Amino acid sequence: MTASTQTQQQWYATIALPVPLRSLFDYSLPQTTTPDTRKQLAGCRVKVSFRSQTLIGIIINCHQTPSFDPNKIKPLDEILDKRATFPAELLKLCWWAANYYHHPIGETLYTALPQQLRQGKPGELTTTVWRLTVEGRGLPKDGLKRAPKQQEVLQHLLVHPHLRGDEIEARNISPTTLAAMIKKGLLEKDSTIEPPPTQAEVDNTLVLETPPNLSQEQQAAIDQLRYHQFKTYLLEGITGSGKTEIYLQAIARVLQAGQQALVLIPEIGLTPQTIKRFRQRFSCPIAELHSNVSESKRNQNWMAARDGRAQIVIGTRLAAFTPMKQLGIIIIDEEHDLSYKQQDGLRYSARDLSIYRASTLRIPVILGSATPSLESLHNAIHGRYHHLRLTKRAGSAKPPQINILDLRQKPLFAGLCGEAVKALADTLANGHQAIVFINRRGYAPTLLCHQCGWIAECRSCDAHMTLHRTPLHLHCHHCNAQQPAPRQCPSCHSTQLNPRGLGTEQTEQWLQQQFPQYPVIRIDRDTTQRKNALTETLEEVGKGEPCVLIGTQMLAKGHHLPKIALVVIVDCDQGLLSSDFRGSERLGQLIVQVAGRAGREDVPGRVLIQSHTPDHPLLECLMTKGYHRYARQLLSERQATGLPPFGFSALFRAESKRPENAIEFLQMVARTLSQIAPASRDIQYLGPIPARMEKLNERFRYQFQLKTSSRKVLQGILKKGVKQIDQHALTKRTRWSVDVDALEN
Ligand code: ADP
Ligand code: ZN
Ligand code: ZN
Q1: Quick check: 8 pLDDT over 70?
Q2: Does residue 576 carry a pLDDT above 70?
Q3: CA diameter of the chain
Q4: Residue 673 near residue 685 (C-beta atoms within 8 A)
C-alpha cells in the first residue's frame, strides 16, 4: 500500500469517556488529520456526542481497525488540544491505576484531571495581554502625546506585539490608562499562550537560606541516597529528627540536575507550615495542589508542573497524578497517613502509585515517617526498601518523657484525672504551653435519658447523635444530619437528659473554668472550617504565650509548635480495644505522633497517657521499647493471622435502600469469584456480611472480602471476576465498588 492511499483510508480514535463503563469508544477522525497530527493525538481531549450528550473524552490512540460496524461509528466533534493534556507518562500511570484498582479507565483519567480541564477549559497556560486595535495601529507615532501614559503604551505597542500584565506593573501603568484607551477603541484585551520558561527561569533554583550542618545520622542517610535510579527509601526517623531537612537537601540535588521534585503530604492540616519551609529554602516556582487551592489555581499549577515551569510540586494525595516534565524524585511525608488512600471512586493509594511511578521513571522515592506503616516497615525489613533511620532529635531538643496514668477508680474532671490537671497547672505556671488530645469533637458522643434510657439516635444511620453545645444541637458525624437538641425526652417526657461520654467542647469548657487567666484554644473540625483558621491559630500559638490547646487528630499531624511542654492523651483505650485490624497500629502511631509535639526545642517535653488498661501488653511495649519494636510485634501478629502485609485482599462493597438488593449482588459476586477460583488455603472468601456501620444515610451496606496469600493471585481473580460481574444484570441496579488493598477488613 502506498502512502497516499493510506492517508485516504478512514482513521479512528479510541477514546476514554467519563462514564462508569470499562470499555473504550471508537470515533472517526476528520479526513483532514495528517499523520503528524495523529502521532500527537494520544492524551488530547476531544468533544464527542455520547447517548445524546456531549462529553469530553481523552484520546487513547489512533488506528484503522474499527471495533464494530464502521458505518455506525460517529465522527468526533472537536479536538480540544493542540498538545496532549495527558503526557505519555501520566497516561501510563493512569492505565496502571485503572488496572490495579479495577476501575474504569475513563473515570480514572478524570480523577487525575483538574476540574477546569474536565470541563474543557484551555489546556495551555495563557496570559492576559493588551494589543492595539486596527484603529490604534493607524495612529501617528506621537498621536497620544497629550496623555503621556497613554503615549507610553502606544509607543511600546507600535514596536511590540503586546503588553503583558507584569510589564504594565513594571511600567507603573494604571488600569484607568488602559481603560481610557479601550474606550477610545485604540486598545483591546486578549489572551495568549505563555511562552515556555527561559533557561534563566529554569536555572533559578537558588537555595535561599544556608542549610544547617547535618548531624552524623542525617549525613549518613543523605550519603546513601542515589539519584537517577529507582529505589524506595524508608526514612524512619523520630519526630524532630530532621527528616524534612533530608528532603530539602535531596531536592536541592535534584533541582541542580535540572529535574523536578514531587512532595506529597497528608491532607490539609500541616500543609501551610511545611510549604513555608520549602519556600524559605528555595526560590524556584513551587506549585501547590491541595484542597485549599482554588480550581483555577489548581489548573494553572498542574500545567506549570507539566510544562516544567514549576520545579517543585507540593500536594496531597491527588497530586500523585500531577504530570511532570522532568521528575527526579518523589517524597512522601508521613507515609503512614491514612489520607493517602482514596476512599471513594478510584480507591488508589497515593503512596503505592508513587512507588510504581518512580519505578517506571527510574528515580528515587523517599517514604518518611516517625511511625512507618506496617507495610512499609515489612518491606524495609525484607530489603525491598532501603531502610534509613534517624534515632536522635536534631539540634538541642531531647525526646519527651512519657508516663501512663492509671485512671481506674480515680475521679475525673471532664475526662482528666487529678495528676493530669496538676501537670497542666504546673505547665501554665511555668509559662509553657500544653496540648490536651481527645479524639472526638462536640460536647458528648451520646445524649441519654436518665429516666427511661432513651438515646438520641440518627434516623438515617446506625449511630448516636453527638451533642454539640456551641451552638447547641445534635449532629450525626456520619451523615451530617443536624437537629435541635430536645429539652425533654421524646419517649417519657423527662427533662433529665444527660450527656454521656466526652468530646472536645466539654473539656474545653471545664479547662476554661479551671484556668480562666489562660487562653484555652480548641482545634477540631468545627473551629477550623474557615479558610486559614488553622494557620492563623497556629501562628498565634507559635508566639509562645502560655495556653492550653485542646483538639482532635488534627493536632497530631506534624505541626511544629516549639513551646509545647506537656501533652495529655485523654483516652487511649479505644484503639487498644478496637475491632479493626489496624486499630493498634493506628493507636501506636497516634500516641507517638501526638507525643512528638512535646519538647520540640529548648523546652523539655512530657507526655501523659491516661488509660483504664495501663498494663495492656501492647501499651507496655510501646512505652518501654518504642514504636519500632511495637510495630514489629504487631507484624508478627499479622503474620500469624495472614493479615496485610502477609495477605492481600480486595473488599467488594454494596449498598442499597433495601438490604436484600445489596446482599443479592454480593452473593452474585461470591458465586462469580468462587467459580473462577474455588476457595482453598490460599484463597478465602468472607461474606457477604454487614459493613461496620450497617445503615448509613438511609442505605444498607454490606461487604464481601477476597483474601489471598499472593498479590498475583488476587489480581488474577479480580481481572476475570470484575469483567464478569460488570456484565451481570444486577450490577447496573446496585451501587457497588471494589477496594483493592482496603484499609479495613
Ligand atoms: P522531622 O521532619 O523529622 O520532624 P525536622 O526536619 O522538622 O524534623 O527538624 C526538626 C527541627 O530541627 C527543625 O526546627 C529543623 O529546622 C531542625 N533541624 C533539622 N536538622 C537540623 C540540623 N542538622 N541542625 C540543627 N537543626 C536542625
Ligand atoms: Zn426518657
Ligand atoms: Zn446519620
Answers
A1: no
A2: no
A3: 94
A4: yes
Task: Yes or no: say if 264 and 288 are a contact pair by the CB < 8 Å rule.
Answer: no
* Ligand 1 near 245 CB (within 6 A): yes
What ranges do the domains of the chain cover? 3-118, 126-193, 201-390, 401-441+503-638, 443-502, 648-740
Residue nearest to atom 20 of ligand 1 (CA): 242
Q: What letters, b where the CB count within 10 A reaches 16 and e where it falls short, cover 651-660?
A: bbbbbbeebe
Looking at residue 7, its pLDDT comes to: 43
CB 701 within 8 A of CB 693: yes
Q: How confident is the model at residue 1 (pLDDT cuts 50, 70, 90)?
A: very low
| Residue 3 pLDDT greater than 80, yes or no | no
Minimum-distance ligand to the CA of 488?
Answer: 2
- The answer to whether the Cα torsion of 276, 278, 281, 285 is positive or negative is negative
Asked whether 235 lines ligand 1 (CB < 6 A), one says no
* Length of the chain (residues): 745
Query: What is the per-residue pLDDT across 531-561, written as a single tens digit (0 to 9) for each?
Result: 778 878 888 888 889 999 998 887 776 567 7
Is 225 a residue whose pLDDT tops 90?
yes
d(C-alpha 630, C-alpha 584), whole Å:
10
* Closest atom of ligand 1 relative to the 237 alpha carbon: 3
Which of 209, 210, 222, 244 has most ligand 1 atoms within 8 Å of its beta carbon, as the pocket-test mutant?
244
- Record: fold of 201-390: Rossmann fold (3.40.50)
CATH class, range 401-441+503-638: alpha beta
| Residue 269 pLDDT level (bands cut at 50, 70, 90) | low
State pTM to two decimals.
0.88
What confidence tens digit (pLDDT) does each residue in 98-136 have? 999 999 999 999 999 999 999 988 888 777 788 889 898
Q: How far is 331 from 340, CA to CA, in rounded Å?
A: 13
Q: In this structure, which topology does domain 3-118 adopt according to CATH?
A: GIY-YIG endonuclease (3.40.1440)
The one-letter amino acid code at 273 reads: Q
Instruction: State the average pLDDT over residues 496-502.
Output: 93
To which H or E segment does residue 166 belong? helix 165-170
Q: DSSP secondary structure string, 432-478?
A: -EEEEE-S--SSBSEEEETTT--B-B-SSSSSBPEEEETTEEEE-TT
Helix (H, G, I), strand (E, B) or coil at 288: strand
Provide the pLDDT for residue 702: 97
Q: Residue 558 has what pLDDT?
A: 58
Residue 636 CB contacts under 8 Å (≥ 6 apart), including other chains: none
* Rounded Cα gap, residues 562 and 395, in angstroms: 12
State the Cα–Cα distance between residues 261 and 282, nearest whole angstrom: 12
